[in-house]
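anyone seen this seq b4? input:
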Amino acid sequence: MEPLLQVEHVTVCYNGNPVVQDVSFTLEKGEILGVVGESGSGKSTIIKAIIGLLGEGGMVTRGDIYYQGRNVVDMPQKEKRRLLGPEIGMVFQDCKAALCPIRTVGAQIYESLSEHEKVTKEETYERAGILMKKTGMDDYQRVLNSYSFELSGGMNQRVGICAAMMMKPSLLLADEPTSALDVTVQKQVVEEMKLMRREYGTAMILVTHNIGVVNAMADHVLVLKQGRMMDYGPADRVLSHSENAYTKKLMDSVLHLRRNRNVGGHFRSRTFEEGVSNT
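predicted toks r here
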């Protein structure tokens, strides 16, 4: 069977300057790929290239990106718009900033959904409520009738995840979905995204600096440095047993947030990664 997504030797340039060079990977249905690397390594550029959000001056200058066998690089904009939402969802790094502050959450979800299917506002709210309750938002009516500035960062992030999942896309692109959240809410968001995969079989590309989140979620990991591939393979090998010098250096630089717990009279250190993995 052909992969859900296939990125082949892709180079992305801004105003003629390459920021991503010769990157290749595949994503199977239901698989989670973690993309890691230092700031400016091209992580976000990769997922922006997939959905055509490179902005002014940005262009895929070499290579191809196939979604279910269709080349999205050469796809007409009108056809690509039909994919975004029903087939490919996006969770932005700051979902609050991605929401309009003068319209309610419910109104924005309804507008997005009604672009792709005939649906009433009542049906939209009912479907959103079912999804929101699965992610711990039992007071979904209040959330749907709220403006983004009335909600916490964690609530806005959950809204972003739910909005992206409303049409049960086959592929979810998540750009630093936990970076602005405290550790407790990070764990909740991780579990909510894993729930989406279990419920709908959604494949994901997770862009993040947080190795703990990658360790808890990813099946495969892609490591980038200055726009080039340094490592790519199963998560356990890349994160724990890589032979690549840069990957080992990157893993050694990870800050482990620890807390001491008195267990049976002995103190035990617990890393953030352990906390996420055991949530």
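Residues 46 and 191 are 24 Å apart (CA to CA). The two ends are 33 Å apart (CA to CA). kinda curious what u guys think
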